[in-house]
Amino acid sequence: MKLVIAVVQDKDSNRLANALVKEGFRATKLASTGGFLKAGNTTFMIGIEDECIPEVMKTIKANCQVRDQLVTPVSPMGGTTDSYIPFPVEVQVGGAAVFVLPVERFEHF
Ligand code: 2BA
Ligand code: 2BA
C-alpha cells in the first residue's frame, strides 16, 4: 500500500475530489498553505494499493492545471527601501506536487 500526498491549487480541489470519488478512490482533503506564495492550497492524502498508483496519477494530472501567478516580493530586510522597486514576478504554479510514500500498516477500525 502507498500514501499519495498531492498538493494542488484550491481551484482544482473540488474537481479532483469528485474525480477521485468517481474512480472509487478514497481520499482526505486538508487545507494547507504554500510556503512560498503564503496562499491557500489543498493537500490530498490518498491511501491506495500499489497497482492503483498509475491510475491515481493520471486522475491528478487530468484535473490539475498549471497556472501563472504574480508575486510581489517583499522589500529586502534591513535594506533601504528608497532604491527598491518591488516588481511583480510571475511564477508557474501546479498542476500538482505529488509524493508517494510507503505505508507500513493500515488499520480501519
Ligand atoms: P508555494 O510554496 O506557495 O509555491 C508556489 C510556486 O512558487 C511553486 O509552484 C513554484 O513555482 C514557486 N516556488 C516555490 N518555492 C520557490 C522557491 N524557493 N524559489 C522559487 N520559486 C519557488 P509549485 O512547485 O507547483 O508548488 C505548488 C505548491 O506545492 C507549493 O506552494 C507548496 O505548497 C507545494 N510544494 C511544491 N513542492 C514542494 C515540496 N518539495 N515539498 C513540499 N511542498 C511542496
Ligand atoms: P471511512 O472508510 O470510515 O472513512 C472515513 C474518512 O477517513 C473518509 O471520509 C476519509 O477522509 C478518510 N479515509 C478513509 N480511507 C481513506 C484512504 N484510503 N485514504 C485517505 N483517506 C481515507 P470520507 O471520504 O468523507 O468518507 C466517509 C465514508 O464514506 C467512508 O468511511 C466510507 O464508508 C464511504 N466512502 C468514502 N469514499 C468512498 C468511495 N470512493 N466509495 C464508496 N464509499 C466511500
**Which residues form runs of ≥5 with pLDDT under 50?**
none
Count the beta strands. 6
What is the tally of helical segments? 2
Q: What's the CATH class, please?
A: Alpha Beta
Number of domains: 1
CATH fold group: Alpha-Beta Plaits
Give the biggest sheet. Answer: 4 strands, antiparallel
Proportion in helices:
10-25%
Distance between the termini: 17 Å
The Cα radius of gyration reads 18 Å
Q: What strand order characterises the main sheet?
A: 2-3-1-6
Bound small-molecule species: ligand 2BA
Which structural category fits the helices and strands? alpha+beta
Q: Which architecture would the CATH scheme give at its second level?
A: 2-Layer Sandwich
How much strand content do the residues show? Answer: 35-45%
Pfam families: CdAMP_rec
InterPro entries: CdAMP_rec, N-reg_PII-like_a/b, N-reg_PII/ATP_PRibTrfase_C
Protein name: Cyclic-di-AMP receptor
Organism: Xylanibacillus composti
What does this structure look like?
The chain has one domain: Alpha-Beta Plaits. It has 2 helices and 6 strands; from the N terminus they run βαββαβββ. The protein has helices at 10-22, 53-63; strands at residues 2-9, 28-33, 40-48, 67-71, 89-93, 96-102. Strand 2 (28-33) and strand 3 form a beta hairpin. The strands form 2 sheets. A 4-stranded antiparallel β-sheet has the order 2-3-1-6. With 109 residues, the protein is α+β, with helices and mostly antiparallel strands. The longest helix has 13 residues, at 10-22. One ligand 2BA binds at residues 21, 24, 26-28, 45-47.
